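Reproducibility note. Readers wishing to regenerate the assembly model reported in the main text can use the exact inputs given here. Chain order matters: entities are listed in the order in which they were concatenated for prediction.
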Amino acid sequence: MPVQFSETALAEVKRLVARYPEGKQKSALLPVLHLAQEQFGGWLSTETLDYVASLLQLSPIEVYEVATFYSMYNLQPVGKHVFEVCQTGPCMLNGSDEIIEYVWEKLGIRPGQTTTDGLFTLKTVECLGACGYAPMMQMGKHYREHLTRDKVDQIIAESRK
Amino acid sequence: MLKAESNRMGRKLLLDKAHVENIRLYEVYRREGGYRSVEKALKSMSPDQVTDEVKKSGLRGRGGAGFPAGLKWSFLAKPEGVPRYLVVNADESEPGTFKDRYLMEFIPHLLIEGMITSSYALGSTTSYIYIRGEYAWIVDILEQAIAEARHNGWLGKNILGSGFDCDIHVQRGAGAYICGEETALLESLEGKRGNPRIKPPFPAVKGLWGCPTVVNNVETIAAVVPIINEGGEEYAKIGIGKSTGTKLISACGNINKPGVYEIDMTISVEEFIYSDEYCGGIPNGRKLKACIPGGSSVPILPANLLLKTAKGETRLMNYESLADGGFASGSMMGSGGFIVMDDRQCVVRHTYTLARFYRHESCGQCSPCREGTGWMEKILWNIETGKGKMSDIDLLWDIQRKIEGNTICPLGDAAAWPVAAAIRHFRDEFEWHVNHPEEAQTRNYGLAHYADPLVLTA
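Running the prediction on these inputs yields the following structure tokens for the assembly.
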């Protein structure tokens, strides 16, 4: 099936492009890639990148070079729930290494891996600006903070529901 | 009781209303005196008068560099017929820093108000907020605040009948620390990789889409609101010397009360760490070992140099005092990301995580930074895991010296300084790792002499 945005998503692209001066639609690239990732299963395939290029009248390379630069774009398929655990200094001081280890214990996945049932992916990330509420991880649009083993259990259980 | 308490805690200009219920909503924010600065500026001041007040206030950029904001505004080129832009830098990504998030999350209208007043001063009719992609839920909060402001006539055409038009858009980044550097931010806003530009030309002359642009941090723009309301001279009376006004500090690490605090830059570092009004001391009866007072890029200091300067004076929470002694014995205010480490923590391991961070975030344009950050990460990992050699410590020193000052943007310096300061002040902890590779896998070096009173040589 060819990659194609829904009518609603296309309207959103139009709204985004209108925020910039005439001819500067390239500025919409980052937000449109976010939208594409949401629409097409949490990652960006080459087909998706080409589709975004045609939508914004860019050459594919302009889209590839951006998609590969920013860490939030997934260029490989990911699980339904992505645990993005911060591991930078302030989180490390408060036990982020133990949280990463505990996810391994519970789900058998190391950073970069996805569970065989396709439910969970573990990613380690660098500082997300939640240093006072460490350790923490990002899940989709939201942060889960003050993590403990119990909290990780809870998050896994509610994700499985 | 409450009054005495708030006096002791110093004046609050940004967060004084942050705890009012529903302050996030327009009606409440307006009822509490919000948008007065826009009324005052648009009805009774010229754009240049607004800039003059910001100059008089002594406000320094709150993103980390501390450059005088009014001066930056006065550099903005104003060629006829060319649009000018205000871009707010909300790409808060410096490890230890989470103050802008707090401000945008809890009192978003303060930023929007500051942006309208500042846009008027700069002549920007379309202004942008560039926010880090991970703060996804804050985008919704800001967009709601913008919609409310527009609905109530503070944005759009001919605001308050002044003839001034203004609109604000929120642009989400996608995960790149480098986009906090202003020219990388502009590249990103143009839909490109976040590769910093060579300066000059500066954004004030050639910025967004080649037009004159001012890029300011969230907190800087929020501070314009009290400056216009109370006047630049009043604002400048708060604080000491060139550290005027108030500063948001995000405190984290091993403290009882992590969080965001507004200080007036007259309190001591010791009071900030130990008083119940702020960090509330170190948990579990542990001792203070070290601190990075201004975000991961600024030099780490051992406890004894943190609380007192090398001259034996009490160190204060302001730009000048934190920097007292230069890099030999001081640090920097930076972004206000205050990271506290207790006596269980390992400086080598912490420095390793920062080196990994900078390697991950280097854009790759300049070889000293692209290659050097990777080498530093690997060497630090070797030392931390018991595979280090004594010569590695000198090699680390050599690499950081060769990065510093040799790159297009300050990320190179930001990567070099934490490594340099860790070796400068904690060299024996590094040597202990090399000399005791097995023991270093089972325990940390501990407090050692890092909190001992300094012997003054003067």
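We highlight two features of this model. Chain B touches chain A through 54 residues (CB under 8 Å). Chain B has three domains: 9-237, 243-342, 347-442.
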